[in-house]
Amino acid sequence: MLGGRAGGAxxxxxELGARIGLSAPAAHERVKRLRRSGVIRRTAALxxxxxxxxxxxxxxxxxxxxxxxxxxxxxxxxxxxVEEIHTVAGDTCMLLKVRTxxxxxxxxLLARLYATPGVMATRSYVVLSTYLERPVQPGRTQxxxxxxxxxxGSKARSGQ
Length: 160
Prior knowledge:
single chain; 160 residues; alpha+beta; Alpha-Beta Plaits; 4-stranded antiparallel beta sheet; 5 helices; 4 strands; 19% strand
């Protein structure tokens, strides 16, 4: 059911039901139940970045003093170029996914970041090509290969 919705949220309930072996009313009821339970949070249109003049995709690492997720820094979300904001573990504090019209717009966004109290540095990674970009998928890999360094006799990590 979820795989059918994730792959085509614009499908009619009749089409969705046919894909998964249910009648249209049964598929509709199942989707309503998934919405009520919070499994399906929302249905969104995927907008072509070129159609809205935002061909430049970049990931920006933001180094901050302290924890980093201050109200001033989170206010960067007011800009529609900012698609995602994450706090992360590793060598940076926050990770932003941004789409802009060009490098000048990216530079303006970075200037706005640097004007934010607590921001010490940024590192930007401009995407040259995208090979996979998709929403959350309902499936899970059940078994991952065992890394060679773990040796013979080690158990594979299960996805359960």
